[in-house]
Amino acid sequence: MIKVILVDDHTLIRDGLKSLLKSERTIQIVGEAENGQQLLELLETTTPDVIMLDLNMPIMDGFETLGHLQQKHPNAKVLILTMLDQESYVHKVRSSGAMGYVLKTAGRDELVHAIKTVANDNSFICSEVALRLLNRVNSEGTTVSESNPKGNNPELSKREMEVLRLIAEGYTNAEIADKLFASKRTIESHRQHLIEKTKARNTATLIKYALQQGLID
Hints:
With 217 residues, the chain is of the alpha/beta class. It contains 11 helices and 6 strands. It has helices at residues 11-21, 36-42, 62-72, 87-95, 108-119, 127-138, 144-147, 158-168, 173-180, 184-198, 203-213, and strands at residues 2-7, 27-33, 50-53, 78-82, 100-103, 124-125.
């Protein structure tokens, strides 16, 4: 029996996962947490085989949680379950000790396979992300960096470019979310990701960088 702890700030997601895995006799949900802080408290009394961890959570998000797990529970086997599909996040969490990365769009069979793979001390990346990584390596298509002669730009997705342009135009996260039909938290994640990719110190330097590099007009 593989003992699993679910860590996600949405009750609906946790309930959905429990329902999804209920028929899998080899997997048992032994605990739940709404954020990293609750997880660390839970680990004082519960020892799981796999921790299914969301990245975007309040109080203590998945990235910070991974840092604490490396220090306090270095043997913990972590499977990231998230909506964030940026390649940089995959590399970041894997370097922080996560063994698996699955998108919330994955099907039941793939999720079960991911849990079993990580429980057996093996790495796992869901097919959607793995295919994207493979395509990027093999692709001869043009990225933002390649198409821009002004030099060494990070690769930005189409949605990141949309968010960047709206940031430069002075829109708030809430306003951008309305325009792009996304949640405010999703836009906040895009903004943070843009700052990380461009190595900008804050939004102001992000805009300055984007203008200098010709990413926006």
